[in-house]
Amino acid sequence: MILQDGAQGDRNGEKMLDRYLKNLSVEVEPFAICMLDMGWRLTLPGPPVAMLHFIVQGEGWVISTDGQRQRIGPNWLVVIPAGNAHSLETRGQMLHELRIESAPEGPPVHRISAGNGGPLEIVTGCGTVNVRYGEAVGLFDHLSQTLAVDLSSIPGIPLLYQSILSEQEDGQPGEAILQGAIMMQLLVHMFRKLSSDSEFTLPWLAALDDPRLAATLDAIIENPCTQHTVESLAEIAHMSRSAFAKSFHEAFDRSPINLLNHVRMEQAARLLGTGQVPVEQVASHIGYSSRSHFSQAFKKHTGMTPIEYRRS
Question: Model pTM?
């Protein structure tokens, strides 16, 4: 069967998306149920990783600190960039506001009510999610604006979300693994929607359309100990140095060497966290021949020496 150029491009994009999803890992933190009465605004702090909202019912707005307003509705999935304080608003005139200064503590599923007994307008699940490619590179790192995706046309979406809440309430063995698997299903639907939308705003998905960049990302993640340079990575991509450096930065919002160093330090942190691999072996695994140079780089990345990190 012979595909036209457009069809071939679509097929290649689908293959790249499949490959990308197979290399994702997902960690879900406990959710809170946020409930807003008519005429209320709920202002939330910006956590260190991306915050996710799943809109259970109602319509309204999510507003970022720069004033950007994004409409939301039932079964929408909203991702807030790390560190971004933001507000949820109901429709109509705002009469009241509840400000949350820090994440609530206590049972696995918290309940936050912005209201005084009036008509309930919005119910949303609010939580943090850490999605990583190759267990080292954060998918939502450097997300520059709120991402809101309408999943209301997809059957079974509400059931997936309710399953995550049920797991958090029950507290059974293996809950973290199961929650991650369920959240992965929600994210797969989100990525499918984004990959078919010419207006999507997630640079990583745009990079999937270019297998040359994907090849260099694999080289970095799978072989961090290799002494990669911009030139050697450009050769893997079969691109000129300047064209590769420009395309890579546009896709990943950082230089190839900056990403390489990030991947090395993240993998080192994971190895140190096991408490079983000597520091010298960790350094060698990620491409450092000198323990002292590794220790300096690791402290610059994490604020702690390898020994301090292992003890923390």
Answer: 0.74
CATH number among 3.90.1300.10, 3.40.309.10, 3.40.50.2300, 1.10.10.60, domain 210-311: 1.10.10.60
What residue has token string 């605004």?
Answer: 41
Report pLDDT digits (tens) over 201-216. Answer: 566 666 666 888 888 9
CA distance 72 to 212: 36
Mark 115-146 as b/e (b = at least 16 C-beta within 10 Å): beeeebbbebbbbbbbbbbbebbbbbbebeeb
Residue by residue, DSSP assigns the chain as -PPPHHHHHHHHHHHHHHHHHHTEEEEEPPPEEEEEETTEEEEE---SS-EEEEEEE--EEEEETT--EEEE-TTEEEEEPTT--EEEEESS---EEEE--S---SSSSEEEEESSSS-EEEEEEEEEEEEEETTTEETTTT--S-EEEE-TTSTTHHHHHHHHHHHHHH--TTHHHHHHHHHHHHHHHHHHHHHT-TT---HHHHHTT-HHHHHHHHHHHH-TTS---HHHHHHHHTS-HHHHHHHHHHHHSS-HHHHHHHHHHHHHHHHHHHT-S-HHHHHHHTT-S-HHHHHHHHHHHHSS-HHHHHH-
Q: Where are the domains of the chain?
A: 24-198, 210-311
Q: What is the pLDDT of residues 64-96, one digit of tens each?
A: 888 889 999 999 999 998 889 999 999 888 889
CATH 2.60.120.280 for domain 24-198, yes or no, is yes
